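Progress against Task 2.4 (sequence-to-structure conversion) is shown through the following example record, which the project officer requested during the mid-term review.
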Amino acid sequence: MRKLLNTLYITSQDYYLSLDGENVVILAEDTTVGRVPLHNLEGIVTCGFKGASPALMGKCAAENISLCFLKPNGRFLARVTGEQRGNVTLRKTQYRISDIEDKSLDYAKSFIIGKLYNTRWVLERAARDYPLRLDAEKLKSISLEIKNSITAVRECENTDVLRGIEGEAASRYFSVFDDLILQQKDDFFFDVRNKRPPLDNVNAMLSFSYTLLASMCASALETVGLDPYVGFMHTDRPGRKSLALDLMEELRSVYADRFVLSLINKKIVSPKGFTKMQSGAVIMDDDTRKLFLSEWQKRKTETITHPFLKEKVEWGVVPYTQALLLARTLRGDLDAYPPFMWK
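Structure tokens generated for the chain above:
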């Protein structure tokens, strides 16, 4: 188990990153506003367009420090990677399985079973914790429907059918997502999932959290020697990290969705931090994005007991543990991939 190190988030659009010895230096024009030792970092995420020096990019690649560039609205732009040092035999196994329908289907079903199990857990826990504020019977009814979807997933025989089952279950889950928002209802509400662009405050935060989670999953896969671009459920598409999207499916609700709900229900975020553009897109301002990232970093350090490993791990390490379990399954060390099923 690797130690969870810090991620440096740069939220201002006006900062430039450079290298000075073993330190990343944050510059505003020609003024140094920050200096962080690289040995303290596992990743750097910047939301500005000023960029980073080639020396810093090369250093990050050499030291296996993820350097990720996001657009100001939080959407993924690019990531610096170094020489691929992964196990070639492991990757060849991954590529071979991705081209065999029945074998790739087994992995895809595991990802979706984990996803549906966790969406049920989110609904069941909400019904249990707030029986007087929520329609518990309504949530339990949707949970039962998703349980039936899990049975259908286990019995399905092709990936297209699997995608259909997953899509229907996701629609059921999101049909009651607004019920889980208990505070600031006038400004934070959810009607339907929209993402290109997000059209309300809640979807803006969901999209941002999914971007961060996908980046974590991609980094985890590369760390264990897998190719994040070749998936088992998401189809191959130039520039799309299909396996990272596969892996994050089981973590969406328990990691990203619950995080967004906590920001709203604990009144950590304010509606004043969101702006609706002429296009209809809703974006977070710099202060809200900085707050969001600060809270995201705190969540990463919270400790849980991994349901399969039965070991104490930090939330930020969960994508890595799942990537490691996936790699072990592909090597034949495990009979089947164990999805993250939170309890």
